[in-house]
Design a protein that fits this description.
single chain; Immunoglobulin-like; 2 domains
């Protein structure tokens, strides 16, 4: 009976790929003899679709004159197919901006942001077989180099005019109020816009953008203010310019101090030829007060 049990045990263990041995002390030892197969073959499979690779340079840039290039030239197809289309889209931008994605192919040159803030470009590429890539997005920062930067835009077609009155100055004065008539780059030389330190151009104001027929933006800036007084920001609805029938127009003013957005407000302006004081800027304390 003991011999039959031993035989059955040996048959059972053999079926389990184990080796049975009997050492000198007659105690059974079971050794695993099963063979484990490891698949060392690289199982990585390249993506079936092309790959969009996007970037933008230089970054950041200063509005509204510095330009950037959206780069898609490093996009590729893992299977070696030719990339035939590069679809660039501006998917996010500051409210009020009218900047658009330039035309072109893999790279889009001479993009000029007209407002401060972030601009997000998206690239999708397509290969010769019609396979489309996943979207690639990249962000361009638009940061004013001027220490005092004021920008304005509005909701409906009208001629809204941005004014910046110097400390101690008065509205519509040709030397103490910066606006379209005296403060644009081609007009300011006609007037004595010498604010702050006498003879120092860095603390004089400039109206870079003046929009007559659209929705803005407009901006007034000072590179390096030297006056420790209070500036006043004013919005004028130019007389005879109203062309909409909405009754009021939502006007937004953003004020940046030293490159950072410090104050913003949107107000409904109604009535042709109205003058609306928005804010006071105390440069010495770095504060903005709503009016």
């Amino acid at each position: 009976m003991k011999r039959i049990s031993t035989v059955l045990l040996l048959l059972f263990i053999g079926c389990m790929d184990y080796e049975f041995t009997t050492p000198d002390d007659n105690k059974p030892v079971i050794t695993d003899t099963a063979v484990v197969t490891v698949d060392t073959e690289d199982t990585y499979q390249p993506p079936a679709q092309p790959v969009a690779v996007c970037d933008v340079t230089p970054n950041p840039v200063a509005p509204p004159w510095e330009d950037a290039t959206w780069l898609g030239e490093n996009s590729y197809d893992p299977a070696g197919e030719t990339i035939v289309t590069y679809d660039w889209t501006l998917i996010s931008y500051p409210a009020g901006s009218t900047s658009t994605m330039p035309t072109g192919a893999q790279n889009r040159l001479n993009f000029v942001p007209d407002m401060a803030g972030d601009y997000v470009g998206q690239l999708i590429v397509t290969n010769a077989s019609g396979d489309v890539s996943e979207p690639c997005a990249t962000t361009l920062e638009s940061v004013p180099v001027e220490n005092l930067w004021i920008e304005m835009y509005w909701g409906y077609t009208d001629d809204m005019d941005l004014h910046l009155v110097a400390p101690g100055g008065s509205y519509n004065n040709f030397t103490t109020d910066c606006y379209y008539a005296n403060c644009t780059p081609n007009m300011e030389w006609l007037y004595d816009m010498d604010w702050g330190t006498s003879g120092y151009e860095g603390d004089d104001p400039s109206l870079d953008l003046d929009d007559i027929y659209g929705l803005g933006p407009e901006n007034i800036n000072i590179l390096d203010p030297q006056t420790n007084g209070v500036y006043t920001v004013v919005v004028h609805d130019y007389q005879g310019s109203t062309t909409d029938t909405h009754g009021s127009n939502n006007v937004t003013v953003n004020i940046y101090l030293n490159g950072s957005l410090t104050w913003t407000d949107t107000r409904a302006i109604s009535g042709d030829n109205t003058v609306n004081e928005f804010a006071e800027i105390d440069w010495s304390s770095g504060t903005v007060t709503s009016l």
